[in-house]
Amino acid sequence: MALLEVERSLGRAPESGSSALDEAGFRRLAEFIWDETGILLTAAKRPMVSARLQRRLRELGCDTLSTYLDRALAPAEDRERQHLIDLLTTNETFFYREPAHFAYLVSEVLPAYRGQRMRVWSAACSSGEEAYTLAMALAEVLGLRGDWSVLGTDISTRMLAQAHQGLYPLERAKHLPRLWLERYCLKGVRGQAGYILIDPRLQKRVSWDQHNLLHPRREGAPFDIVFLRNVLIYFDRAVKQRVIECLYEALRPGGWLFISHVESLQGLRTPLVMQRPSVFRRPPG
Ligand SMILES: C[S@@+](CC[C@H](N)C(=O)[O-])C[C@H]1O[C@@H](n2cnc3c(N)ncnc32)[C@H](O)[C@@H]1O
Questions:
Q1: Each residue of 211-250: pLDDT tens digit?
Q2: Which domains does the chain have, with CATH numbers?
Q3: pTM for the full model?
Q4: Which residues bind S-adenosyl-L-methionine (predicted)?
Q5: Is residue 63 annotated as part of the catalytic site, yes or no?
Q6: Has 229 been labeled as part of a binding site?
C-alpha cells in the first residue's frame, strides 16, 4: 500500500494516552500490517494497538514504537515480525459459532456428499474451534470412517499452536450441541479439569498450516467447502476483492463458500452465486 493511502485511511490519530506510540511509528506500523496481512489499522484502532504492544516494548526496553520497529522490521528479525502479527490480529472465536451455518451444512449440504471424498477448509481458523466444529458436522453426516478431512489455516502461528493442541476451556464449548460435546470431546481430569480435549479420532482428520489469505492456496485444493468467517471485516474493498479471488480459485466448481452473517461480498466482482445470506457457491463446471 502506498504511504499516502495509509495516511488517508488513518486520518488524524487521536491522542492514545501513550507517548510511547509515536505518530511516525504508528504510521509505519500501519503500513507494515497492511502490506503483510491486509488488516487496516485506522486511527480508531490506536488504543487497541497501544494496549497490545506496550508490554512487548517494555520487555525489549524500547522507549517508543519507532525504536521497536527499527528492531522488528530489520531484515533478520522474522520471528519478531511474526510476533508482531500475532499480537495485532484479533482471534476471537468459539465452537459452533453462528449455529445456522452448521444446521444448514448438516441438513442441506453434507448429505449430498455421502460416499464421496470431501475436502473442507477453515481459512482463518484462529485457535481451531471452527475447524473442529466442522469436523464434528462431517463426522455426524459422513461418519468417522468417511473420506473427508479439514484443513485449518491462519496467519497467526501462536493461534495455530493452540489449535494443534486441541485443548480448550470448557467455557468455549458452551454453544456446542450437548450430543456433539459428549461424542467428540473428552473431559479433562486432574490438571486439565475444566478443559475439554478434542477426541483423537477427530484430531487426526484435521491438519493445520500457516497461510496468508492475500496469497493463492494450491496445497490441498480444490476444496468442496470453505469457511471464511469474521475476517473480511478487517479488510477494505480492494483487499476483500483479492482474498475472494484467491479463494474462488481454491474452490471446486460447485463448491461452497461461507462468510459470516455480519459480512458481505457486496460491491465485489465475483462469479460466486448467493444461495442464502452469507452462503455462496462457485457455479458448477
Ligand atoms: C476473528 S478470527 C475468526 C475465527 C473464525 N473464523 C471464527 O469465525 O470464529 C480472525 C482470524 O483471521 C486471521 N487473519 C487475519 N488476517 C489474515 C490474513 N491475511 N491471512 C490469514 N489469516 C488472517 C487472524 O489471525 C484471526 O485468527
A1: 999 999 999 999 999 999 999 999 999 999 999 999 999 9
A2: 23-88 (1.10.155.10), 99-282 (3.40.50.150)
A3: 0.93
A4: 91, 93, 97, 130, 154, 212-213, 229-230
A5: no
A6: yes
